[in-house]
Amino acid sequence: MGFKTIDYENDKLKIIDQRRLPGKFIIIECNRLKDVYNSIKTLAVRGAPAIGVFAAYGVCVGLKGTKTSDREKFFLHLNKIVEYLKESRPTAVNLFWALDRMKAIACKNKDKSTIQIKKILIKEAKCIHKEDEMMCKAIGINGARLIRSGDKILTHCNAGALATAGSGTALSVIYRAKQEGKRIAVYADETRPLLQGARLTAWELNKRKIDVTLICDNMAGSLMKQGLIDKIVVGADRIAANGDAANKIGTYGLAVLAKEHKIPFYVAAPSSTFDFTLKTGKDIPIEEREPREVRRFAGVDTAPKAIKVRNPAFDVTPSRLITAIITEKSVFKKPYGRSLEKVKG
Ligand code: MRU
User: Fold this and answer.
1) For residue 227, what are the contacts with CB-CB under 8 A and spacing of at least 6?
2) This model's pTM is above 0.90
3) C-alpha separations of 312 from 90, 236, 277 in Å
4) Is 237 one of the catalytic residues?
5) Cα–Cα distance between 131 and 178 in angstroms, integer?
6) Is 209 left (phi over 0), alpha (psi -120 to 50) or beta?
């Protein structure tokens, strides 16, 4: 991809500070657990799979200074780290999935010395990282089969390399289709209020020389009506057992518009984004972010200071509006029945 969204070498955890893109390309180092927490909370690192990989390394950062050989103390500390990082953001299930996986591998090796357990945890985080890379690649291969040369594809938010440890989910489909020689044009929704589409998707597609056109979110319907959109491909932050999918706020509206205009609406996500403990999307916790993100634009007040604001960061698209879910295992089409459970194994 030409850049590493997350990097862990010689016990140093580094990320691209996505708050500064596209103006500045800055790598920051997260040396303390608090840095890890804040980087997730403030969206220096964001996107469901990337948050999961980063949090896994975050556990290693949190344990770095722990000298104790007392296993009981070690596990108490590990638990605190995991619970603390789980508080950083609520919607992307990959965060909880990765942290639980880290805890589970530590418990499985509870009879080893604390030094050995720390090494095992680093290995596990690297494994989660590598797996994410592979899943992105497989999602690209599976999804590209749905794309025809000449397609004009709309995407929302950023589900690209910046949102994962690999080539992305929704954007991996686009990268792969292009690699296969298909002619693709992309429309990127700017994605208010934090502009992940404008700042990040436009940036990475442009860097990869993909034909990309930026639009404001409220232009999507009009473009669909004019026949300018052939397909919509988005990512997801959490998918319930029935296929309802939470993604960046505005995704649901796009799915409704897609139905009206008979445009295929695809969700691309790895197995780590599925939450089979939730039967439907209605129980997916939706993050409510700070009002000032809506009251201000590019550092300037654009609404009266005291005005009431709602700022849900995600919405849930019901499975009936989703044409298919593209995963690293295969492409799942409705009616799902219990077929989605295949992503588990
Ligand atoms: O608030 P963000 O930027 O973390 O939201 C990200 C998204 O909604 C992405 O579409 C989703 O995480 C999928 S990333 C492959």
Assistant:
1) none
2) yes
3) 12, 15, 22
4) yes
5) 23
6) left
CB burial class (10 A; 0-12, 13-18, 19+) of residue 92? buried
Type of residue numbered 10: N
Peptide bond into 193 cis (omega under 30): yes
160, 171 Cβ separation under 8 angstroms: yes
Is the minimum distance from the CB of 49 to ligand 1 under 6 angstroms? Answer: yes
Question: What is the sign, positive or negative, of the torsion defined by CA atoms of 198, 233, 291, 27?
Answer: negative
Sheet strands side by side (includes 231-234): 211-215, 185-189, 152-155, 231-234, 265-268, 324-326, 331-333
- Check whether 279 has a pLDDT greater than 80: yes
Is the shortest distance between the CB of 47 and ligand 1 below 6 Å? yes
Q: Order of strands, edge to edge, in the sheet holding 27-29?
A: 6-9, 12-16, 27-29
Structure tokens, 180: 């296969």
Query: Is it the case that residue 301 has pLDDT exceeding 80?
Result: yes
15: left (phi over 0), alpha (psi -120 to 50) or beta: beta
Which of the following is catalytic: 237, 244, 275, 315? 237
Paired with 160 in beta bridges are 168
pLDDT (tens digit per residue) in 30-65:
999 999 999 999 999 999 999 999 999 999 999 998
Which of 41, 97, 137, 158 to mutate to test ligand 1, by most ligand atoms within 8 A of the CB atom?
158
CA angle, corner 154, sides to 92 and 6, nearest 5?
A: 40
CB burial of residue 299 (10 Å; 0-12, 13-18, 19+): exposed
Tokens of 24: 């500045």
For residues 284 and 172, give the distance between their C-alpha atoms in angstroms, rounded to a whole number: 25
3-state secondary structure at position 247: strand
Q: What are the residues facing 291 on neighbouring strands?
A: none
Q: What one-character-per-residue DSSP string does 102-161 give?
A: HHHHHHHTTTS-HHHHHHHHHHHHHHHHHHHHHHHHHHHHHHHTT--TT-EEEE-S--BG
DSSP states of 27-50: EEE--SHHHHHHHHHTTSS-SHHH
* CB distance 165 to ligand 1 below 6 Å: no
